Amino acid sequence: MAMPRTLDGYTRPVTVPASRAVALGLIAGLVGGLFGIGGGVIVVPGLVLGLGFDQHRASGTSVATIVASAGAALITFAGDGSVDWRAAAVITAGAVTGAAIGARILHRIPAATLRWVFAVVLVAAAFRMALT
């Protein structure tokens, strides 16, 4: 099976120690459930810095983990009435479109640029949260 092509060459396979991967997932799920953030805020840096993934594969792998973890958190949030379903539906319409576009253009962006933009977005979000 051919590996997806990136601007950096071919995405390389990574051997992931199960204990480290489970720990990363546990931390991402806990932080995502507590703060309502996408697990990618934790998973992507964990995959790149802790498990040796390249930026492109980390993005794709992170998205694959978000579906199950978001579903688990949604069950709890919905059960206690913490979901504004109308807002969620409207946001989802845009998010689905944006995610599809982002996934299609991901491999056209160099890994170094992805890392830089990801870091800037995280810092900007943290700064804005701290000021509100």
Describe the structure.
The protein has helices at 18-35, 40-50, 55-79, 85-105, 111-131, and strands at 5-6, 9-10. Strand 1 and strand 2 form a beta hairpin. The chain has one domain (19-131). It has five helices and two strands; from the N terminus they run ββααααα. With 132 residues, the chain is mainly α. It is globular, with a radius of gyration of 16 Å. A two-stranded antiparallel ribbon has the order 1-2. The mean pLDDT is 86. The longest helix is centred in the middle third of the chain and has 25 residues, at 55-79.
Shape: globular
- Tally of individual domains: 1
Rg estimate, integer Å: 16 Å
Mean residue pLDDT: 86
Assess the beta-strand content as a share of residues: under 5%
Largest sheet: 2 strands, antiparallel
The total count of helices amounts to: 5
Class computed from helices, strands and strand pairing = mainly alpha
The arrangement of helices and strands along the chain is EEHHHHH
Query: What oligomeric assembly is this protein in?
Result: single chain
Q: How are strands sequenced across the largest beta sheet?
A: 1-2
Question: Could you give the count of β-strands?
Answer: 2
Compact summary:
This protein has 132 residues and is mainly alpha-helical. The chain contains five helices and two strands. Helix 1 runs antiparallel to helix 2, helix 1 crosses helix 3 and helix 2 packs antiparallel against helix 3.
Topology of helices and strands:
Layout: E1 5-6, E2 9-10, H1 18-35, H2 40-50, H3 55-79, H4 85-105, H5 111-131
Antiparallel strand pairs: 1-2
